[in-house]
Amino acid sequence: MSEQYEVEFIERGDREATFLVRGVTPAFANGVRRAMLADVPTLSIDEVRVVENSSVMFDEQIGLRLGLVPLTTPRDEFSEGETVTLALDVEGPGTAYSGDLVSSDDLVSPAEENVPIIDLKEGQRLEIEADAVMDTGKEHAKHQGGVAVGYRHLQRIEVVGDNEAFEQDDPRIVRGVIEAEGELVPAESFGNDLTNRYEGKEVEVHDVPNAFVFDVETDGSMSVDDLVLAAVDSIGDRADELAAAVQL
């Protein structure tokens, strides 16, 4: 990787973002993607103790649903293997939602409060205690903080001339973000078809070397910023471990 690299956000939200990174190799870009999916630990319910379950759903099914509820995981507050206890105590009639989970730690709560867990009829009750454990996506997919992570080359558009008179413009489909006239332009803004933006023009499309556009979406367990920073830190930690091992 180059010692000098640049990061520029095209769209930036807490859970979704699109950003451009210049000055990195394809191997490093893919390493960041893989780290966001597999190496960044998050909290997820792993063990459930059922106190009472008079619903029609088996304990194992409820445990599966609880394990898929994203939990907020503040960066650098927990270490792998640490646990946080949550409790759920609801009676019918009504629907139990993820927001009904009560956490023993104020830093940890369901990232989404409206995830349905079970419908309870009159007289039915569900009371459980659950342990959420800090672990990584490479151990189980429920720990993947990044639910949609991808990247592609930044493409530069160059106008090389005009089309001949009466020549039919064939669609030129591009995805992601293009660099045109020195600006970054999301392809969605012109329907992903270059002929909409450059009507009657002949254009060439070139991949910009060592420039990649990332699209990242999280499950709410952490922000996009924290997910990316944690992924990069994990790569650095592994590099340090390798350097130490080589020197032994």
Describe this entry's structure for a reader.
There is one protein chain. This protein is an alpha+beta fold and 248 residues long. It has two domains: 6-39 and 146-234, Gyrase A, domain 2 (2-Layer Sandwich), CATH 3.30.1360; 43-137, Beta Complex (RNA Polymerase Alpha Subunit, Chain A, domain 2), CATH 2.170.120. It has helices spanning 26-38, 59-67, 194-197, 224-247; strands spanning 6-12, 16-22, 42-53, 83-91, 94-97, 102-103, 116-120, 125-135, 146-162, 177-180, 183-186, 201-218. It has a six-stranded mixed sheet, with helices on one face. It has a four-stranded antiparallel sheet with strand order 3-8-4-6, covered by helices on one side. Strands 5-7 form a two-stranded antiparallel sheet. The longest helix has 24 residues, at 224-247. 29% of the residues are buried. The mean pLDDT is 91.
What are the defining features of this structure?
single chain, 248 residues, alpha+beta, Gyrase A, domain 2, RNA Polymerase Alpha Subunit, Chain A, domain 2, six-stranded mixed beta sheet, four-stranded antiparallel beta sheet
